[in-house]
Amino acid sequence: MSDDNTPWHRQHLEPRAGLFAILTTVCISVGGLVEIVPMFTIDSSDAPDRVTIEPYTPLEVAGRDIYIREGCYVCHSQMVRPFRDETLRYGLWSRSEEYMWDRPFLLGSRRIGPDLHRVGGKYPDAWHYEHMFDPRSTSPGSVMPPYPWLSRWKIDVDDVNASVVALNRLGTPYSSEDLTATATVLQAQGSEIVERMSASGIEVTWDTEIVALTAYLQRLGRDRTTTLADADGEIP
Amino acid sequence: MSTAAAAASPVELYDDEITKKFVWATLAFAIVGMTVGVWIALELAWWPANLGIPYTTFGRLRPLHTNAVIFAFGGNIVFAGMYYSIQRLLKVRMYSDGLSNFHFWGWQAIIVSAAISLPLGLTQSHEYAELIWPIDIAIAVVFLSFGFNVAMTIARRRVQHLYVAIWFYLSFLITIPVLHVFNNLSLPATLTRSYPVYAGMTDALVQWWYGHNAVGFFLTTPFLGLMYYFLPRAAERPVYSYRLSIIHFWALVFLYIWAGPHHLLYSSLPDWAQTLGMIFSIMLIAPSWGGMLNGLLTLRGAWDRIRTDPVIKFMVVAVSFYGMSTFEGPMMSIRAINGLSHYTNWVIGHVHSGALGWNGMISFGILYWLVPRLWDRELYSEPLATLHFWIATIGIVLYTVTMWGAGLTEGLMWRALDEGGQLQNPVFMDIVNQLAPFYWLRLVGGLLYLSGVLLMAYNLIRTTSAPAPTATAAAAK
Q: CB–CB of B44 and A10 under 8 A?
């Protein structure tokens, strides 16, 4: 082992499991540290065009949790790339500050269906109801499964409250009303959607899952588009 | 190993019962995981296969498929191969049979809980890290207990120098807990739901740092370790180059970690991070091909056995697919190419050329080599193993080629502009409808591959259930 022709690494490194493990740990740490640590210094509130990104309301949080439960992100991305075809098809390309309240992020990795980052406001509420109930009624040829249970199942107010409280503890700002009178807040926003759906002949109650999911989908990507439209500036 | 007959054998030194358990688990979850894969392939070709109930929709079953094939099939074969080779390479029994069994039953319990929780819609949504926080804690405990068992075995080894396979195992045992813990840091809201401490693009970057290195350190380094043990054993040749193994090991563990951002090209991740991800992905060709060449060249002087030995057939094709997919991956990490391939079926094809071609085929080669030795029986049928090889190879080629076709079709149709600079295919469903033939052909490819696995299961079960060799026959060997 110790004769002079033995290379140094064979003498000093490869027989020493502890040293070997430490060096391996160093090797696998460098890349992650260099790439990830600077991300914590990014301040999304300092976005160049002063777009204010509002946190998701409790109803939208409930809808987002349903979106995650059903695995919508498996087939739909939420990231419009800065390509001409994508801005034509979907709208403004996505910016990092728009995701600042996204826990977890839902960029997706596959477009079996279209991108959803600019779906907010694209269709009426009733469209989303019809689409979830029977995707082919609104999108002929779709391969999406129907989700009829969304118009039967109810959200659990305590469950939504637990989510909002947890998100608040992680730093998302919520009002004391959001945190303590969650049911009232949920009902207020849900009732507006119920009213609009009712105008199209769809009868649901404010606490059905489809209402929460619709609230989330209608919200997607709108902070930036509405702010820029209000400022009546040129949309980049 | 049946009692007294083999008592004199040095093999009794080693705990092979644990390897046998992991072999059975590998077979069971290969069938389960790939069956779910075939099922979701059918769902894309024919949506009524979603069955109209919440628990079997594509959105819920796809994570079940990926988790089952990566962590249940892939994990179990890695553990089987590690328990077998570590004891022989270190010339000592595992430190603790109790810990080995805790690892086995703990891992299977985690798999079963995944198979229940994912169809119920309990998920964190991070790809390959979908399992909810209580299961995440169990994963950390079980994996670290395995790591401790291996570390103590290394400490008590009877050889001084650590063989290259052990290096790769060590990098697996070190890196996976780091990735798992940091990617799953989250605040529980309820027993089944939690929110990550990272938000937005930071969460995305941490997740793809994890996600890409799950490929790197769960599907690559431990499998390379297996290759470095089982390929030379099967070929009865020493590893081609010790020097090459040193260079490609250290380069691989250093470079792999940086490549995660190639999953976020053209996203709103800062450009410098995207560029780093792209550059390191391209550099990864070198250490990846170092491993491939070292594997293939180990067969020098034994190439004729490709014709006759199904084990060698599987291993050669596996290492070749490793080389192919580690070339394709870096190409897809180049921004301009990624702009076309990202979000399309091309990515699915790429993943499967790696998973079916590399991980699957090397696993089958190992199983056909290992099972006859573990049970001390002749393989029930070599022609059946050769048939498996051809069915699997045709299945992979069909799968990959159709997914290239589907990916290019959708990628090109999405971006096509007419003379006026407007979308040529403004209706998304027009593009979706072009993919149906590809989805059906892919389904055939997947079915072929699954059929091969069923053949293997039959072959190996017949092998192990053959009557025990008599003492004289064993002595004659």
A: no
